[in-house]
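Session log. Operator J.P. requested a structure for one protein chain; no other inputs attached. Running the standard single-chain path with token output.
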Amino acid sequence: MKTSKLLLAGLVGGVVYFALGFLIYGLLMKDAMAGMSSVMRAEADTQWWAGILGNLVMGVFLAYVFARWANVRTLMGGLTAGAIIGAFIASSYDLSMYAWTTMMDMKGMVMDIVLSVVMTSVAGGVVGWMLGMGKE
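Structure written below.
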């Protein structure tokens, strides 16, 4: 597979991941998540460059894994693989943070894992679909 196709799929996956994060965490769940963490930056202090870059890294990570190791080339394959990867990454991070910090409570941890799985699944579906488009 061409590197340019992998990078384009990763870029689009990262944009989808960012948009879903903004929609889910920034708009739909903003009030629900507000009381679950005392470490959030004030909106005016948000470091957008880091958030955008972090989401793009996730998109490229999914594209790399799908293209180089897992041979995921369909929407459904990407949805499934994205959900599994999202579940492992979010569970590992959130369980560790819950165990050793006061960054979130149990409800926030579970909610974050579920929402992360949804986001990674959808972004993974888009990445898988894009990787399967056209000729190699």
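Operator note: Residues 106-132 form the longest helix (27 residues).
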